[in-house]
């Protein structure tokens, strides 16, 4: 009897401790989660939401790469200016290379076009950054985002960043494809590739800011598509993406100098190909694109305070 009392007491104490622990676990489980009010947390949550929809749908990525591959594989190889020159009797390979250098600033038109295709994919990916804003407004997610502690500026920057990340990933894939198809690699180094992608980042940031800004009050996808079609082709063809400025008429050369896409093409060709024909010095290209990106991002944030409403 004397031995049973301590054992019962121990059992009672253990049961009490277990009950206390279970009640504590239930209290913790039922407690409201701590709200993370960090601006960076909200920014990443919004950015990652759009990225998940993209990388979990590989068909969308494949389709977005079809157009630049067609331009590189068909247009770039078919429009072989070197063949036009070599078809003339008595033309030597050295003279063909010299003619390409004089006309395009690089060893071949395919290499010239390949660098332009990097801006091409950036431009067309950035153009659809605003479509995400339109769909979020149509399906009610924008109202939910505006009800959270996340600032309106973070919503805009999140849309821009997801577009920039997508653009740079696709540009990297296009560069790999261009090298595989015969792009000149004699000037490719880690530093030149890194510098080129800094330029592409600035271009993507500025263009994504532009298209997001134009979509802030839009809930009609048809209107946004009309805006994309209105701006995309002029930005592409009124630049040096496909043809050098040396063969353009005077009035078009003036337009090209006001097009930020031209400065991105110029910088990437100088870095990746060592182009001997420059639209501007490399530091001017960086300055123009940095100003372009900062100005449009600032405008997008300021306008979001006025235009982003429930």
Notes on the protein architecture:
The protein is mainly α and 310 residues long. The protein has one domain (57-307). It contains 14 helices and no strands. It has helices at 4-30, 39-55, 58-78, 81-86, 93-104, 109-127, 129-138, 141-146, 152-181, 190-214, 221-237, 250-257, 260-273, 282-307. Helix 6 packs across helix 13 and helix 10 (190-214) packs parallel to helix 14 (282-307).
N- to C-terminal distance: 75 Å
The string of secondary-structure elements, in order, is: HHHHHHHHHHHHHH
For the sheet with most strands, the description reads: none
Structural class: mainly alpha
Q: What is the overall number of helices?
A: 14
- Any idea how many domains? 1
Number of strands: 0
The residue ranges in which pLDDT falls below 50 over 5 or more consecutive positions are none
Q: β content, as a range?
A: under 5%
Quaternary organisation of the protein chains: single chain
- The coarse overall form would be elongated
Q: What's the overall average pLDDT, rounded?
A: 79
Helix content: over 70%
Radius of gyration: 28 Å
Which helices and strands appear, and what pairs or packs with what?
Layout: H1 4-30, H2 39-55, H3 58-78, H4 81-86, H5 93-104, H6 109-127, H7 129-138, H8 141-146, H9 152-181, H10 190-214, H11 221-237, H12 250-257, H13 260-273, H14 282-307
Helix pairs in contact: 2-9, 3-6, 3-9, 6-9, 6-10, 6-11, 6-13, 7-9, 7-10, 9-10, 9-14, 10-13, 10-14, 13-14
